[in-house]
């Protein structure tokens, strides 16, 4: 099936993640980023282990990430943190441990089933400074200049308008605030059959863009101090690839230079310069 509009892509992801919200972690981890049982091999691009991090809650971990952004996010006591695509709340609860009772964490997700699950997870644990809001991360339901830190784990690759998301991140961050985002990117071009596969799109791969383009979007939106904090290859088993590629295309893909990677990227919103209080010679200064 070929998707032609952003609305169609979003609806596919929304439906898929509504299904994922009802699945357990083991089911998600043995599938295409939660998108369904599609390999005889265990395929889990989230090979990082959250369990050693303070604030980890197993009930909120659906095994859908591709990194540990909260580990690199430099969250401090009292910070306001926004998690984009918060799912069942896993990264939010780890961020809450870092902010302490004096901070606040806001999770944003556009899937109602995920919001409901995250709210339940927060309520049963008495987490009163963690809030979950349903909304589109291209149009966040938060005011400008309120966040010290933005985190996200394997979510922007699912959004067609990535430039719009980075513009929103810039808007909601305080001057001097920063983000740490784990995401899936490409080096070289993904074969067209994979790009057009709805299941692979919801499975975090075919929605990815070129690594250089991804970093350029960050720069073009005004962020400074851009650093790749972690990078790792993502290996898709041949039995998945063979569903979408011919034998010849599969051989060319696996032997070529094309690569799928998880990266964790840090960047900062610059501190805005104060304008001069008056014009030269007016005497007001």
Explain this structure.
By secondary structure, this protein is α/β, with parallel strands linked by helices. It has one domain: Rossmann fold. The chain contains 11 helices and 8 strands. Helix 6 links the parallel strand 4 (147-153) and strand 5. Helix 1 (6-21) packs parallel to helix 5. It is globular and about 60 Å long. The relative contact order is 0.15.
The fraction of residues in strands falls at 15-25%
At the third CATH level, what is the topology name? Rossmann fold
Major β-sheet profile: 8 strands, mixed
Helix content: 25-40%
Q: What's the CATH superfamily, by name?
A: Vaccinia Virus protein VP39
Class by alpha and beta content: alpha/beta
Q: What is the number of helical segments per DSSP (H or I, 4+ residues)? A: 11
Which CATH-level-2 architecture? 3-Layer(aba) Sandwich
Mean pLDDT: 78
Shape designation? globular
Kindly report how far apart the N and C termini lie: 65 Å
- What's the count of strands? 8
Name of the top-level CATH class? Alpha Beta
**What is the count of structural domains?**
1
N-to-C SSE series?
A: HHHEHEHEEHEHHEHEHHE
Radius of gyration: 20 Å
């Amino acid at each position: 099936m070929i998707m032609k509009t952003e609305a169609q892509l979003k609806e596919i992801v929304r439906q898929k993640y509504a299904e994922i919200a009802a699945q357990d972690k083991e089911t998600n981890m043995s599938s295409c980023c939660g998108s369904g049982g599609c390999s005889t091999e265990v395929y889990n691009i989230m090979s990082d282990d959250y369990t050693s991090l303070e604030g980890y809650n197993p009930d909120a971990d659906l095994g859908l990430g591709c990194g540990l952004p909260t580990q690199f996010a430099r969250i401090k006591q009292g910070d306001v943190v926004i998690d984009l695509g918060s799912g069942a709340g896993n990264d939010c609860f780890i961020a809450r441990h870092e902010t302490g009772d004096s901070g606040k964490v806001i999770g944003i997700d556009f899937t109602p089933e995920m919001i409901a699950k995250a709210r339940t997870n927060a309520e049963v644990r008495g987490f009163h400074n963690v809030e979950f809001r349903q909304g589109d991360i291209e149009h966040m339901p938060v005011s400008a200049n309120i966040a010290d830190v933005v985190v996200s784990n394997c979510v922007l690759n699912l959004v067609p308008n990535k430039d719009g998301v980075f513009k929103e991140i810039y808007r909601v961050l305080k001057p001097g605030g920063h983000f740490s985002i784990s995401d899936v990117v490409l080096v070289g071009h993904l074969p067209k059959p994979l790009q057009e596969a709805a299941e692979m799109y919801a499975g975090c791969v075919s929605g990815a863009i070129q690594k250089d383009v991804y970093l350029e979007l960050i720069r073009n939106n005004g962020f400074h101090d851009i650093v790749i904090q972690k990078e790792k290859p993502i290996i898709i088993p041949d039995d998945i690839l063979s569903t979408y590629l011919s034998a010849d295309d599969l051989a060319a893909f696996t032997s070529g230079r094309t690569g799928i990677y998880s990266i964790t990227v840090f960047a900062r919103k610059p501190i805005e310069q104060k304008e001069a209080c008056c014009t030269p010679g007016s005497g007001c200064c």
